[in-house]
């Protein structure tokens, strides 16, 4: 999702250069496209693509991968890969894939090493805190009975049903607390939009944000 208009790219680099440091991580380049414009999720992704050194592919750690043929087979839905193309997806890859088999699977999509260092403070070393915790979590998840794994689905379904009821009530209610209650339940239901792109994603139009925008913010 890298920007293609030349003057737009020049403006982005100029505004980034005017920022002398990254507030949280001074050793990193200040993010592109963070000043001016609409400041929406798509602009954020374009700026990220300019800084990540993914060269129009998908970057995981210091490797570049081409998942074009794999997009439609992705268990989490094709849209995640479509939105993140041209960016560094290391953090998302590490967080969402606990099974080590995935590491082997992506090898066939490897193209080449990246030319630039990662513009991120996170290293994901094998003996580091995150990877050590991840391995421990993977072992704990194996102990969860199948019946318990379905429980989150039932909870989200119940939340969505609550949204429908609360929204209908708020249409005629003049009670402030009833209206606020419907806003709260809609916010809780937004958690569903980060899941697999199946029929349940159709729930997202009931909350005040398009699913594409919300998914972009999760990348």
From TrEMBL:
The chain crosses the membrane at residues 154-170. Residues 39-115 form the Cytochrome b5 heme-binding domain. Keywords: Heme, Iron, Membrane, Metal-binding, Transmembrane, Transmembrane helix. Signal peptide: none annotated. SUPFAM superfamilies: Cytochrome b5-like heme/steroid binding domain. Pfam families: Cyt-b5 (PF00173). GO terms for molecular function: metal ion binding. May play a role in muscle cell metabolism. This is Cytochrome b5-related protein.
């Amino acid at each position: 999702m890298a920007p293609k208009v030349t003057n737009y790219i020049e403006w982005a680099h100029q505004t980034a250069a005017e920022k002398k440091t990254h507030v949280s991580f001074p050793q990193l380049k200040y993010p592109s496209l963070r000043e001016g414009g609409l400041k929406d999720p798509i602009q954020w992704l374009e700026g990220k693509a300019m800084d990540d050194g993914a060269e129009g592919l998908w970057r995981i750690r210091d490797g570049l991968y081409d998942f074009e043929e794999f997009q439609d087979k992705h268990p989490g839905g094709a849209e995640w890969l479509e939105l993140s193309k041209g960016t560094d997806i290391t953090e998302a890859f590490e967080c969402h894939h606990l099974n080590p088999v995935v590491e082997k699977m992506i090898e066939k999509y490897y193209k080449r090493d990246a030319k630039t260092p990662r513009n991120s403070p996170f290293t994901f070393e094998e003996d580091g805190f995150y990877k050590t915790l991840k391995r421990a979590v993977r072992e704990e998840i194996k102990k969860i009975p199948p019946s318990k794994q379905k429980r989150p689905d039932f909870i989200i379904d119940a939340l969505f049903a609550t949204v429908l009821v609360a929204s209908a009530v708020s249409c005629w209610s003049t009670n402030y607390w009833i209206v606020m209650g419907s806003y709260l339940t809609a916010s809780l239901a937004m958690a569903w939009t980060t899941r697999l792109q199946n029929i349940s994603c159709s729930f997202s139009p009931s909350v005040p944000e398009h699913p594409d925008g919300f998914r972009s913010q999760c990348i």
